[in-house]
Amino acid sequence: MRPMPRRTALRLPALLLAAPALGRAQGQARLLVVGGGFGGASAARFARTLAPEVAVTLVEPQPRFITCPYGNLVLGGLREMPAITHGYEGLVARGVRVVQDRAVGIDPVARRVRLGGGETLAYDRMILSPGIALRWNAIEGYDEAAAAAMPHAWIAGDGAQLRLLRRQLQAMPDGGVVALAIPPNPYRCPPGPYERISMIAHYLKRHKPRAKILALDAKERFSKQPLFQDAWRALYGAMVEWVPANVDGRVMRVEPRAGVLETELGTRHRADVANVIPPQSAAAIAIEAGLADATGWVPVDYRSFEAKAAPGIHVIGDANQAGAMPKSGFLANSTAKQAVASAVAALRGAPPPEPVYFNTCYSHAGEGYGISVVNIFRPNADGSAVAEVPASGGTSPRGDLPEQRRLEALYADGWYESITADMFS
Ligand SMILES: Cc1cc2nc3c(=O)[nH]c(=O)nc-3n(C[C@H](O)[C@H](O)[C@H](O)COP(=O)(O)OP(=O)(O)OC[C@H]3O[C@@H](n4cnc5c(N)ncnc54)[C@H](O)[C@@H]3O)c2cc1C
């Protein structure tokens, strides 16, 4: 049996150390998964089920994974942090070697990955799902230091950003202003900022009813817009003001200490709490490995998710150029399965599987008030593009439908339970 790295071993309960962590037999194919979030954890778990003959290693720097999905509910006071925090014990029990470290260099020709702790891992196929990076200074003045005053809370990491935003909301005066800066497309989770507005409004309505939310948007339209706007009117009245790009919503500059957000036309908004969600790119490791193009995202073959620049590396989740597909946890999970099946087929010398991708994005617009959008996607024959299957999708119906909203909030809870089980159990 291969020894588990000491740092990982120390954090695992004794019971799990006795679990059948697979050593690699001579000649056994190696699947290396980098990133243990929605794409990576789903891939590692699925690989163990689909191809027990393959040795699976997962590299992830965080000891536990905090999900961005349902993070907004923590802001709303409807969940606490433990409810969105997940351990890797289930994957270890399934025979995944979990290495708590960060990939710092990829050599796609030699098929090796260098880790921050000094270890080098060789692979036959790699699944890379490192998520996003924030484009510091794309908004003038918004750099990593600024995020300590104006949190983004858009990458979960160790949870510090989400906790900071929640503390700021709790500390602000009644009658204060919460401003959000919302980025242009493409970015992680198209409906996420609007669910965040809703959950902050839910919190404020109960605790600071005279407060206002000013949502400054670099776009003119957004996901599930009529449904969100109906909900805001019905649940929060005049509390939420959404300012689109054509009404001077685009934030160009921030002054973190003064709490100022400045827009394209030079309007200066002072906020008691500022949640700045900046423009994004693929995570640093994907860019440094030369996998991304000038867009900052990784072009892939949509049948297998192999990076165009590096055969043998399947890039899934938010880091790839997703075409028509939104950057969602649901799709990271769905495409993880296709990427693993393609990688395993290649290792077995078998034909690749037939691709089809699913997405349902639920959002909570209030307590017991769920809305959703559903789509199914397929790539074209040569894998150069991916499109929605005609008439495959849709959104929740509009109207005064309290029972529908109540049920969709429950379906959303069910989705969260089942996808996190599909990643970590
Ligand atoms: C507020 C919010 C709400 C959301 N709500 C929903 C929702 O309701 N439904 C939905 O489907 N999606 C939702 N999303 C989107 C979802 O979180 C992402 O689409 C999903 O996390 C993408 O998965 P991923 O694997 O690409 O990245 P992640 O899940 O972020 O995982 C990336 C992992 O890679 C690790 N990593 C990074 N660099 C390295 C490295 N160099 N070496 C090793 N590991 C590395 C990171 O530590 C991280 O654990 C939401 C997002 C936000 C911000």
Q: Can you describe this structure?
A:
It holds the Pfam family FCSD_central. Residues 163-278 form the Sulfide dehydrogenase [flavocytochrome c] flavoprotein chain central domain. Residues 30-142 form the FAD/NAD(P)-binding domain. InterPro entries: FAD/NAD-bd_sf (IPR036188), FAD/NAD-binding_dom (IPR023753), FAD/NAD-linked_Rdtase_dimer_sf (IPR016156), FCSD_central (IPR049386), FlavoCytC_S_DH_flav-bd (IPR015323), FlavoCytC_S_DH_flav-bd_sf (IPR037092), SQRD (IPR052541). Residues 353-424 form the Flavocytochrome c sulphide dehydrogenase flavin-binding domain. The chain has 425 residues and is of the alpha/beta class. It is 29% helix and 25% strand. Helix 3 packs parallel to helix 10, helix 3 (38-50) packs across helix 11 and helix 7 packs parallel to helix 8. Strands 5-2-1-9-20-19 form a six-stranded mixed β-sheet, covered by helices on one side. A four-stranded parallel β-sheet has the order 13-12-11-17. Strands 21, 22, 23 and 24 form a four-stranded antiparallel β-sheet that branches. Strand 7 and strand 8 form a beta hairpin. It folds into two domains: 6-131 and 283-353, 3-Layer(bba) Sandwich (FAD/NAD(P)-binding domain); 135-280, FAD/NAD(P)-binding domain, CATH 3.50.50.60. It starts with 5 loop residues before the first helix and ends with a helix. Mean pLDDT is 94; it is low at 1-22. Flavin-adenine dinucleotide is lined by residues 34-40, 59-62, 65, 68-69, 71-72, 102-103, 129-131, 154, 188-189, 192, 196, 283, 285, 317-319, 327-330, 332, 361-362.
